[in-house]
Predict the structure.
Amino acid sequence: MFKKIFIANRGEIAVRLVRACREMGIIPVAVYSEADRAALHVRMAGEAYPIGASPALESYLDIEKVVTVAKRCGAEALHPGYGFLSENADFAEACANAGIKFIGPSPKSMRIMGSKTRARQEMEKHGVPCVPGNSQALESFEEAVQIAKNIGYPIMLKAAAGGGGKGMRLVREPQELRSALEAAQSESQRAFGDGSVYIEKAILNPRHIEIQILADEHGNTIHLGERECSIQRRHQKVLEESPSSFVDVALRNKMGEVAVQAASAVGYANAGTVEFLVSQDKNFYFLEMNTRLQVEHPVTELVTGVDLVQMQIRIAAGERLPVRQEDVNFRGHAIECRIYAEDPDNQYFPSPGKITLLQEPSGPGIRLDSGVYEGWTVSVDYDPLLAKLTAYAENREQVVSRLLRALDEMFVGGIQTNIALFRRILNDPGFREGKIDTGYLNRLTASVAADHQHNEIAALAAGLFAVLDETSSRDSIMRDPVGPIVSASRWKRSAKIESLQWQANDDRQN
Amino acid sequence: MIVKINVGDNPHRVKLERDGQEWRCELDGRLIQVRAQLVRRDVMSLITNGKTYEVKRDQLGKQARIWIEHSPYVVELSDPRSLASRTRNRSTSGNSRLLASMPGKILRVLATEMEQVEAGQALIVVEAMKMQNEIKSPSKGIVRQLVSEGTYVNAGDVLAIVE
């Protein structure tokens, strides 16, 4: 087994990887950009090295820098996490050339699956069902016009190198095509360093269901069931669950078999995910394969009892899969909420800033994968994912109650988050009945009506905060290393002024 | 102590007097007994009539918020000056100021100054946190002011003015 693993990532996933290493007695090595010097993953790691300026292109996405630092620190293996360089075959190759084991598939299978167009060709060849469309990168606007016309609107533009909804655009009418294509190409170029875009027929109101697979380097491949990821906003997953209420045993077996076939077709090793679009009549189409660990892997870990990260590390170390397909048991239900720093009052735009107050949920069946802490400043430079809150219970109904309870315990102050959105989803009768598809979230009205029920308690509390700030400030200045927050002193001052003014007014009136 | 507090648009007058373990509160002339304990900075445990509230406080930009049972209430310990300054910032009718909602970089500018634009026409592409967003004109009009490409903007910065 490896003695030292280099973690080429940041945020909650870097923390997740640090934890797996610690549990296996491996030294976790972190890297950090200028903005991340005091990040949680750095604080928790065994070793940590600087890697450049805050923009990801100058740090976490710089292959040469990452490989150089990894080699210098003496790590035997490297885990790329998700995002950043995790699906970059050149990076995997650079690691191999530097004598570092890349914890993931071979550059060859990454190249095939990493390019959505090549993956499509390969899948069609092996009889894996695909969505109608062209599997070639578009060469010109004129070509796009022609293909879109042949397939018929609405169509979907997708980044050939992409994932996570970046470089992706739905085009409903021909006149939208030019600006959508330019946007998709430019976004793709900036996110992945490759502006190639292709076209697919848009299947309306589909479900997004994916199969987790695990393959060792000795030719054994198994699947660990599905994850339902239909709750999305702008093609970004927001809430995921396993099992899917839409998938019965027969469909699970069928999709699982196809996923294993897809992986075997490209000689895949390590953990991977085969994404499918599932139509309302339960036909499924290969969407893409993510050749890495998924953000939403915890739901699979909870219902199968398999630690995916530890399994990845063992596979990379050359071990055989310890479980056969028939040994895989599914038990209970798990749902994950992606807690983002986003402003629900402003179209869920990212809301970076300092977390002034953080209360984390705990208790039975709750798992929190967080990358932040109180006092941490959420940077504008990276993805606004703060934490993943996952709950596990015997059945779906119990998980929903458990998650609602945990969300009640959670509080993030100083920035905006999407926590209220989850309360809304989990209380929605449609969601509870499992009536969801990829358009669900857009239909669920985004704005939450302002609550005025506790106006008076709020007024009382505001007043009490002001007087209690006053009485506790003498102690708190001594106790609190960063000093009382600005708001507290401002409140105190304001309250003082007001109280003087009111007394003056009262005096005059009397 | 007497404090004048606005919750949203509703003004309240709160008089607070310590009474042993409790606070004697007068809310708009009505007497309420409250037990309040500051658990830590910005978190207060509040009990009134046997009902418990875990009240949190935070600051978002210039707004102070009190959170009760997951709902934020924007509160203001009223200061006439801040009210006046807020009114001044409001744009006049027929003149739309497009403000940046968050820090980001201006990737592309799709219109030119003095150009006649339609409502919904894309004017600017902003990138923040790896997502690109088109800023569209809210109304038909003439572009009077426009940021330049490559600029880094902060939340609240004027991106464009359409008259």
Notes: Residues 455-479 of chain A form the longest helix (25 residues). The CA atoms of residues 34 and 54 of chain A lie 5 Å apart.
